[in-house]
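Researcher: Checking consistency across runs. Here is peptidylprolyl isomerase again:
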Amino acid sequence: KLQIKLWSVFHLWHSRLDAKWPHNCVHGMIYLAVLVAFAACDAPPVPLDDIVFEKTFVPEQCVRAVKVGDYVRYHYNGMFPDGKKFDSSYDRSSTYNVYVGKKQLIEGMDRALVGMCVNERRLVKIPPQLAYGKEGYGDVIPSDAILHFDVLLLDVWNPDDGVQMKTYYTPENCSRKVEVSDYVRYHYNGTLLDGTLFDSSHTRMRTYDTYVGIGWLIAGMDQGLLGMCVGEKRIITMPPSLGYGSNGDGSDIPQQASLVFDVVLLDLHNPKDGVSIINQDIPQHCHRKSVAGDFIRYHYNGSLLDGTFFDSSYSRNRTYDTYVGKGYVIGGMDEGLIGVCIGEKRRIIIPPHLGYGEEGTGTKIPGSAVLVFDIHIIDFHNPSDTVVITTNYKPEVCETLAKKGDFVKYHYNASLMDGSFIDSTYNYGKTYNIVLGANQVVPGMEEGLKEMCVGERRHLVIPPHLGYGERGVDGEVPASAVLIFDIEMIEMEAGLPDGYMFIWNEDVSADLFTEMDADKDLQVLASEFSDYILRQVNEGKGRLAPGFDAYRIIENMFSNQDRNGDGKITEDEFKLKADETTHDEL
């Protein structure tokens, strides 16, 4: 009686000990007590009447435990009580795959597998009546043999299973979700249910790119990707019926294996997509919108749909300058730049068929990538543009108007179309002085100053072909920049008739050469010539062209009269302008 009770207690404790207890110590103590009792009774132990198992490893997480009707994949070593091995799945390099509770196994193993978790390990002792009984199994297992199995569960699924999806990261903004026929780019790690890695796009450093829902993927992935947002991270678990089935993939994925994919979605578009435009900041006043054929200067930040940066004009500290609507840029940008205002900020989302297509750019932009451009329009113009003149103030008396040859003095504030400051005469405390028509300023300014009167104020918009052109001014005016000038006419001096640098205010002396020849030696030196002309100007008898260096004018006048270049003018050389048409002198 004592031996039977002790043996029953031993089996009760053995089967109920939790794997987290220090069961080896407790087990040993109980077992030792039983053996001592048996020795005292001088009788053999009673045979097993049920399975006995010990959990030698239990995973931290057990998402699912084996139930009757489940299909399992497991490894095992089969041994007799003396430790002699009679079978092993490891020796065959193949798991044992079977339904549980459907009499495809010996009854003891059917019972032992129920409740196991993936990656759990159990030591199972099965009595003969729950194994191969009195018949045994050929020459391998003798009659009435107790069997020990060291079992490691690798996979479990049920024929009724579908795809299981668990999202563990959702982006704050999700404007669009994957639908059937969408084209996606994603990264993944593919593992078996026990965590064995069989594939990863990360190791190839290249996304997996495919259509969804049209049969390009295994069925489970086709289902698992639906409804994802760009940036979302999701665990997709699928049974073999929705994966690689009873054959596996022939190499890394075994037969009847459940698959687990850890997926992050990076990109999403549909072949029917067009350019998407999101207006971020539209100026309050927009006098003009861009049209095809305009030349635009803009800044941009370029990124992929998942936010990965690939380019920026800001990093180069220079705008991107191009014609629009003429194929100078990718199709999506050509379209996205139409209808913008100066100063506008907008986001342009471009599908790959309107961007860099299936090939990408090789390094920064992958194939089939959706592009996102955040742009800021700095200015634009058309090659047919002229100077736009707006009069802000005009005096009541405005009769004398500036014309070619006039010497004008004016103030200005200069800026770019986006308001960037360029220069101002007010900073220097003096006017800017030029002769109209003498190519002393850009053509657009010449045009803007014409027909102004003193006191008048104008606003000028000068296109680059009438400003500083494609080169601009280094460090001051960008290439191809539209210029804004606010000008005020301060003073004006009438110029001379076209072609004249000096005129007489009264009748010319009949004896002009003699008057110039101060020392009466019948020749006029440069000093005599200069002194005479300056005296006429000072006495109001003549006028030099305003705005030019008087001495340079007189020097040129003398050189034109000194026809043989000997440094003096003779009476034979001396002629008035009325007498010839080839020189701009007297």
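Researcher: Does this match what you'd expect to see?
Model: One thing to look at in this run: The two ends are 150 Å apart (CA to CA).
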